[in-house]
Write a structure and sequence with these properties.
Strand order of the largest sheet: 5-4-3-6
Largest sheet: 4 strands, antiparallel
Mean pLDDT: 89
Number of helices: 8
Helix content: 25-40%
Structural class: alpha+beta
Radius of gyration: 16 Å
Distance between the termini: 33 Å
Order of helices and strands: HHEHHEHEHEEHEH
Low-confidence stretches: none
Shape: globular
Length: 188
């Protein structure tokens, strides 16, 4: 099995600077870890970066945790951010499952690069974006890469509703509480 540090090392082998390393880490998580919103598990062991690397599958929270862990493995300071978002392009199947198009505690990562915190959202892999007609988010290590405001046809896609701030580690109790409050049918 590949470890988080091995995955980070392999993704950044050709990097000359921390910014280059962060960009390479972003793309490794974005495109090598498949996004699956049905893979949500609130067990701390299943949310760990090591679990996401092992399965090769994650959702916004676990993919953000993985990016933060990989950055730390490369000595790049990182923290986790969370926000409630409305996904205007939620599929019928996912909306039926969640009973809403609001995703609470949508995860992203903040990286300290060249003295500034930069937000990165390595969530939707390229193949998924291609399938749904959404331009994949890009990341240059200097500008925030936070959300898909519009799809490739100009339709509204993601809308940030409430920012919960940033954290050094997963605010596990608050995350679980919010999931149970907003999705009670999933956590009976």
């Amino acid at each position: 099995a590949v470890s988080v540090s091995d995955f980070a090392r392999d993704a950044t082998a050709a990097s000359q600077t921390d910014t280059e390393a962060a960009v390479n880490l972003y793309y490794a998580v974005r495109d090598q870890i498949r996004y699956d919103p049905y893979s949500i598990a609130l067990d701390p062991d299943k949310m760990a970066a090591s679990a996401t690397v092992t399965t090769g599958v994650g959702y916004c929270v676990t993919k953000s945790i993985l990016l933060a862990a990989m950055a730390r493995a490369r000595n790049i300071p990182s923290r986790l951010g969370y926000a409630n978002v409305r996904n205007h392009l939620t599929t019928g199947r996912l909306k039926k499952y969640m009973k809403t198009d609001v995703f609470v505690f949508h995860g992203y990562t903040e990286l300290l690069l060249d003295g500034a915190w930069v937000k990165a959202t390595p969530i939707f892999n390229r193949s998924l974006c291609d399938r749904f007609g959404v331009t994949p988010l890009e990341f240059d290590g200097r500008h925030d890469s936070l959300f898909h405001e519009f799809d490739s046809r100009g339709n509204r896609h993601m809308e940030y509703l409430q920012d919960h701030g940033h954290f050094a580690d997963v605010p596990y109790e608050k995350l679980v509480s919010e999931f149970q409050k907003h999705y009670p049918h999933m956590y009976k």
